[in-house]
Amino acid sequence: MRHFGIFSLILLTTILSACQVFNRQSTTDNTTQKSIRLQGHLTQDEHERWIFHPCNQETGSILQPSHELSKEIEDLAPEAPHGLFADLSGHYNEKNHFTPTQRYRLQTEGFNCNDPDFTRLLVRASGNEPFWSLLQTPKGLIFHLPNQSALALPYMEEKLPDGRYHLSTEANDLLLRLWLTPQSCTDNMSGTVHHLTARLQWNENIHYGCASFGGLRQ
User: Is residue 4, in this structure, part of any structural domain at all?
Assistant: First the structure.
């Protein structure tokens, strides 16, 4: 996967200030549970159980994944002998086991606990062949293509039915539209599994990729 240091660009730093939001409340069967979004590493213990170690926490918890998440972990595990990185939302039970209710991202490489951009973003989307990247912040979009300077653009957001989003801008004589759909998506180069598929229209060109929510959106 190709990375770039967008926040070293002075032009763009002014649009990337926001607070970190991770917790939300959900009510099921008249019992209130706290659903927490956590990022961290998954490793196996001697009993072949997956242990989830949240970022900046010394202790881990036994993961109780769904059948679908278990298969995704098993498929990626051979590529990551030292463990996987996971971005999950879920809750702890009385035994301190962690049950995920949403998988945002599961990966063997790429953005991890040291990602400086995560808490400032609403969405990160990207695709390959050709590579493109689009970051959504509360104050603007950051669009990046290979061998070109990143562009900071104003935008409009529309929330569509079924959890879909549409972002658009026509600034700088550039027609840019991004559709996000809540559907599992696997990056065809890194193998990273995302919870959103992305369709990008850039002028007359159509590109496809994957996306996931940043720390400012649940």
Answer: no
Report the alpha-carbon distance of residue 131 to residue 1 in Å, rounded. 9
What is the mean pLDDT of each successive set of 10 residues along the chain, which is 218 residues long?
41 41 39 82 94 94 97 94 95 95 94 92 96 96 91 96 96 93 95 97 94 94
**Structure pTM?**
0.83
Number of domains within the chain: 2
Range of the domain at 177: 116-213
The verdict on 99 and 123 lying in the same domain is no
